[in-house]
Write a structure and sequence with these properties.
141 residues, six-stranded mixed β-sheet, 33% helix
Length: 141
């Protein structure tokens, strides 16, 4: 019984250490995909908070066409994106992108990775693109 618990603790510790070593690779991979596929290489604004220097480093590493949005933000500066990382489970890292096309258009993209001591292996993506409301009756043409 104690051996199983000890083994689980050791695996969890190795998982979180792996996450720490893999986070930069996961972020670079997700930023590259966002910049080149979702944004088609077009420039965009990034909202950064204090302590998010690793995001700027990842953006620079993949040569993303971004501009950091100043605080307070310019109300006409679109498209803009907020990026953050979560790694609640050992060996699993998620990179979240909250994107705004303007005041009315938004989308969320999350890239999930298996982090193995510096390697980022994609295990899936998820999207949330809210649908536009359609009126009950369309005007006659």
């Amino acid at each position: 019984m104690w051996r199983k618990i000890l083994l689980l603790v050791v695996v969890a510790v190795f998982g979180y250490v792996s996450n720490a070593f893999s986070q930069a690779a996961c972020l670079e991979n997700a930023v590259f995909w966002y910049s080149q596929v979702m944004m088609s290489g077009q420039p965009y604004y990034v909202v950064l908070k204090p302590g998010q220097e690793q995001i700027r480093h990842a953006l620079d590493t993949v040569k993303a066409p971004y501009t950091v949005l100043p605080s307070p933000p310019d109300p006409d500066a679109y498209p803009r994106v907020r990026i953050y990382t979560t790694s609640w489970v050992p060996f699993l890292i998620s990179e979240h992108f909250y994107s705004e096309g303007d005041e009315t258009r938004r989308a969320e993209f999350t890239a999930h990775y298996l982090g193995l001591f510096g390697m980022a292996l994609s295990v899936g993506d998820s999207f949330d693109i809210p649908s536009m409301s359609i009126p009950d009756s369309l005007p006659a043409s």
